[in-house]
Amino acid sequence: MGQRYIDGGVRSMLNADLATGCDIVVVVSCFALEVVGKNADMATLNAALIGELGALRNAASTLAVIAPNEAFLTRGAAMLDSKSGYTQATQEAEDIRLTWNS
Fold this sequence. Notes:
Number of helices: 3
Strand content: 5-15%
Oligomer: single chain
């Protein structure tokens, strides 16, 4: 009682900029980072997130970004669809291993 909690997504949906200065960074996004359609709100949101990722790249961090892939998005998979998540995870695993061990 007496404590307040806030979802980290209120500050930023990625909070990737908080990893600036780290040597190796793996960013996981729960949504696509490209603008889909003509949704101005998503374009604005994604511009800020892409800016965070750009700052990490400019800081010479080794960076890997995981976001829902085209197959996941095309299927219209629910956020918690474990089969789609597992399929994408197995596809991304080698890249993440190489990034982490770089």
